[in-house]
Each structure stands twice: as structure tokens, then as C-alpha cells.
């Protein structure tokens, strides 16, 4: 079946599923394959649960006209998403970076939604499957789509950019994330910059943090760039008023009080404000959107418990975000201060060195105590207590409760699932 014909089916039944546990009535089910499953084997179940059609790539499963046989289901999903992206008139904003992508996406979405019919990536569906699903959620009346793009190796952002074909783009930062896949920090810069490469090659517009020397160097004299800065008068000026404990900004004599902790969230807010101004959202509406955003899903959440203030930042971690969180933590909050840090993943050969750097930073901080959790931290040299696993520190906390009326930072990679510690604090 040609993509244009499949797209007509999609227009008639504009809902897509890749999981039989999440079948909507009259959706189109794409029978994707994984390392441990074959979606073709679930095609019949999808129809029984209410799917209008199923897309399969193994001939023996195409037993009726409700089965659409293609050469490769994943490629078909990606091609359909690209076709639909060009069928609709929505402007697409591509977003990538090492840290802060999801928070930035939500802030931009909140701001632009004040004036436009806007959709954005749901959760962190930002890979070779998530990006197509986001594009397929664009409706005919959608005016702006914010598409988050994640990557852990070279050429991935280039591939996703070719599917999404963004009209605008922004890179949050270049940090020490996925060093193993990218091959070091220079590899991260090169990989994330593939978004810029696409935009420049196609004469599209770029948004930048003009205080980031890497972004300025990458873009040079490129004309179609817009951005913010705290100092550079050539860009939209946004002033940081600190973060004690919440980020405050000043724009055109208007103070914006956010519900975000950590000075590292300043740039996330600033780009949302900058884009709002570019797209002619009035400043009072921008202020309202930024101030209404509340972090969730273990991203810099503030939790009050037993007289203590807990900063739960357990969604993800890498050396750059870990150091930024520690620096911000040291400047805010009441004493006594305690940190509970979990391993940072996907660092490859740099894992030992990067974990030791973090323990050294912690040693110089004014803290009541610190606890390191995970195999990588367990291998470091430090005077603070170390635990091989979350289960080990849970056993410890059962008989050694942390002091009440403290300020705690809990941060680690998603795989550590450090939110489990909340029940024992």
C-alpha cells in the first residue's frame, strides 16, 4: 500500500497504537517488533479489541482486508508520520539537548498555548518511535507542534530531523550525557548539533541561548537566529533574579516567579519566554504560563514530609546535571542539608572518573551528610557512606532514620528509581 493511501485510512481513523494494552476504538495498530517480541503476533488481538486496521510486515498474518501488509512496519510508521507532517500546515519546533528537554518542552507548550492551537510530545516519547507518534497527533487545525528529540548516539538527531522536518529548533545545552554512545563530550556536541545542521541546510530558523559560547560558535553569522541573553544586547534580554528556592526572572520590568527550583532552570524558562515573544504572545500571558507550570514525574519536585523538604530529581542524571543540581542545592534551602545520590548511567569508560568527580564536589560542600548509591558510586573514594543498591540503603534507613526538619536532595539516573527512598524518609 502506498503511504498516501495509508494516510487516507489514517484520516478516516486518526488514532494510532503500537501496544495492544492501549487500543482505542477504530485506531490503526502498527505491529512493531522488538528484541523480545513480534508485534505481528498481536495483530489479531488488536482487531478483537477494536482496532480498525492493523499494519503488519509478515505475509502469513495478513489474513483479511483489515490487515495492511507492508515491507517494514517501523519504516512505514515513520514514513506515514513524515507524510502527515507535510499534509498539515502546523509549524514544527524541534527540541533536543543533554538536559532539560522535557521541562523546556512543557514550558514552551504552556506559553504558546496561550495564543495558538498547540500540541507537544507526550511524556518523553522522543525516539524513533515517539517522534512519529507525536507527528501523527498533529490535527488539521494544529498551528504549532513542539517535538522533543532524544538521542544517545551519532546520526540519531539527523534521522529524527529528517522525519519531523522542523521549521524552528532549539538545543537546551551540551552536557555529559550518553557519553558511551556519543564517544565523549565532543561527540555529544556533534550529535546534538545535527538539529542545527538540518535547520541551517534547509534555511530554517534557530533559537539559541546566546550566553552559551558553543551555540554562538556553531551558528556564527547565521541570519535566521533568535535568542535570549542576560548580557548580549543583540538578543532579547532576560535577567535572572536567582533561585531561592524558586527561579525568578525579570523581563521588560516584569518579574516572573516560577515554581521551578535550581538556577539551571533559568535557561529553560528563558527560551520559553523568548519563543513566546517571537510568536507574539503577550507578556502577561507568558508570565501566567510560566508561573503556572509545576514540575512532576520526579523532575525537581519539592515534597514536604515530616518537617523536611525533599527535592526529588530522580528522573535522570548525568555529570552535568548532577553538578548543577548540587551547586543549586548548596545555595538554597535550610540546614541541615543531606544529599542522596544514585549512579549515573551510560558513561562508558568515563564512569569511574565522573562518579569520583561528583564525590569530590560533595566533599567540599557544607552538608550534614551524604549517601552514595549504586555500583559506580560504591567504587569511588569518599568518606561518606556508600551502598551498592537501593535495597541496601533502604535496609540502612529502616534502623537509621534521617534527621527530621532537614533539606534533602535525591538525584540519580532513571534506572536507579530513587523515588523508592521516599517511603523510608
From TrEMBL:
ATP binds at residues 97-103. It catalyses: D-alanyl-D-alanine + UDP-N-acetyl-alpha-D-muramoyl-L-alanyl-gamma-D-glutamyl-meso-2,6-diaminopimelate + ATP = UDP-N-acetyl-alpha-D-muramoyl-L-alanyl-gamma-D-glutamyl-meso-2,6-diaminopimeloyl-D-alanyl-D-alanine + ADP + phosphate + H(+). SUPFAM superfamilies: MurD-like peptide ligases, catalytic domain (SSF53623), MurD-like peptide ligases, peptide-binding domain (SSF53244), MurE/MurF N-terminal domain (SSF63418). GO terms for cellular component: cytoplasm. Residues 299-376 form the Mur ligase C-terminal domain. Residues 96-275 form the Mur ligase central domain. This is UDP-N-acetylmuramoyl-tripeptide--D-alanyl-D-alanine ligase.
Amino acid at each position: 500500500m502506498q503511504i498516501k493511501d495509508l494516510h487516507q485510512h489514517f484520516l478516516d481513523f486518526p488514532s494510532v497504537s503500537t501496544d495492544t494494552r492501549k487500543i482505542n476504538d477504530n485506531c490503526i495498530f502498527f505491529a512493531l517488533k522488538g528484541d523480545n517480541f513480534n508485534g505481528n503476533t498481536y495483530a489479531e488481538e488488536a482487531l478483537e479489541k477494536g482496532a480498525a486496521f492493523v499494519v503488519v510486515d509478515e505475509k502469513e498474518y495478513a489474513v483479511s482486508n483489515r490487515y495492511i501488509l507492508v515491507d517494514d512496519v517501523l519504516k512505514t510508521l515513520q514514513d506515514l508520520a513524515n507524510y502527515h507532517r507535510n499534509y498539515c500546515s502546523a509549524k514544527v519546533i524541534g527540541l533536543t539537548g543533554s538536559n532539560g528537554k522535557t521541562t523546556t518542552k512543557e514550558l514552551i507548550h504552556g506559553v504558546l498555548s496561550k495564543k495558538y492551537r498547540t500540541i507537544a510530545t507526550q511524556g518523553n516519547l522522543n525516539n524513533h518511535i515517539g517522534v512519529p507518534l507525536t507527528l501523527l497527533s498533529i490535527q488539521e487545525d494544529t498551528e504549532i507542534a513542539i517535538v522533543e528529540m532524544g538521542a544517545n548516539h551519532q546520526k540519531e538527531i539527523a534521522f529524527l530531523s529528517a522525519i519531523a522536518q522542523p521549521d524552528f529548533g532549539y538545543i537546551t545545552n551540551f552536557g555529559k550525557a550518553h557519553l558511551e554512545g556519543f564517544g565523549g563530550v565532543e561527540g555529544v556536541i556533534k550529535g546534538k548539533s545535527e538539529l542545527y545542521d538540518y535547520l541551517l541546510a534547509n534555511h530554517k530558523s534557530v533559537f539559541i541561548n546566546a550566553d552559551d559560547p558553543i551555540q554562538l560558535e556553531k551558528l556564527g553569522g547565521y541570519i535566521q537566529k533568535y535568542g535570549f541573553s542576560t548580557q548580549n544586547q543583540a538578543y532579547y534580554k532576560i535577567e535572572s533574579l536567582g533561585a531561592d528556592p524558586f527561579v525568578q526572572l525579570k523581563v521588560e520590568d516584569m518579574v516572573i516567579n516560577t515554581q521551578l527550583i535550581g538556577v539551571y532552570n533559568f535557561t529553560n524558562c528563558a527560551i520559553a519566554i523568548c519563543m513566546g515573544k517571537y510568536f507574539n504572545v503577550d507578556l502577561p500571558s507568558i508570565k501566567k504560563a510560566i508561573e503556572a507550570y509545576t514540575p512532576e514525574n520526579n523532575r525537581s519536585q519539592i515534597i514536604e514530609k515530616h518537617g523536611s523538604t525533599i527535592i526529588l530529581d530522580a528522573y535522570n542524571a548525568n555529570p552535568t546535571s548532577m553538578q548543577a543540581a548540587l551547586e543549586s542545592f548548596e545555595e538554597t534551602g535550610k540546614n541541615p542539608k543531606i544529599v542522596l545520590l544514585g549512579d549515573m548511567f551510560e558513561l562508558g569508560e568515563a564512569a569511574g572518573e565522573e562518579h569520583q568527580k561528583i564525590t569530590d564536589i560533595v566533599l567540599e560542600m557544607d552538608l550534614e551528610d551524604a549517601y552514595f548509591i549504586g555500583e559506580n558510586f560504591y567504587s569511588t573514594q569518599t568518606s561518606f557512606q556508600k551502598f551498592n543498591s537501593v535495597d541496601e540503603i533502604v535496609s540502612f534507613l529502616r534502623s537509621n532514620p534521617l534527621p527530621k526538619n532537614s533539606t534533602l536532595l535525591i538525584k540519580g539516573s532513571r534506572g536507579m528509581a530513587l523515588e523508592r527512598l521516599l517511603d523510608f524518609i
